[in-house]
Amino acid sequence: MSSNQTGKLLRSAPHFPISDVERSVAFYEQVLGFRCEYDAFFWVSDAQALHAELNAKGADIVYGPVIQESYQGST
């Protein structure tokens, strides 16, 4: 990397227990320069079953289910 280039964090999915989501999002966007692109990520035991259940109830699911084979069988 040359001296005029900078590294760039491309993606992250951190977990921060907070009491005020809107205030925290504003801080991350305004102070730290983050952009809000996604809503939430969930790790579940049966993604297809949960997706089918929520779809049947009318949930607006943007992405899903996304199953990462490397997590199969882990708890």
Entry keywords:
single chain, 75 residues, 2 helices
Would you kindly provide a brief summary of this structure?
The protein has 75 residues and is mainly α. 27% of the residues lie in helices and 0% in strands. It has a domain at 21-71.
Secondary-structure element order, N to C: HH
β-strand amount: under 5%
Q: How would you sum up the global shape?
A: extended
Oligomer, anyone? single chain
Distance between the termini: 39 Å
Total helix count? 2
Radius of gyration in whole Å, from Cα?
Answer: 17 Å
Number of strands: 0
Mean pLDDT: 80
User: Which percent range fits the helix content?
Assistant: 25-40%
Structural class by secondary-structure content? mainly alpha
Q: Low-confidence runs (pLDDT<50, min 5 residues)?
A: none
Largest sheet: none
Care to describe what's here?
With 75 residues, this protein is mainly alpha-helical. The protein has a domain at 21-71. Helix content is 27%, strand content 0%. It has helices spanning 21-30, 47-56. It is extended, with a radius of gyration of 17 Å.
Describe the secondary-structure layout.
Elements: H1 21-30, H2 47-56
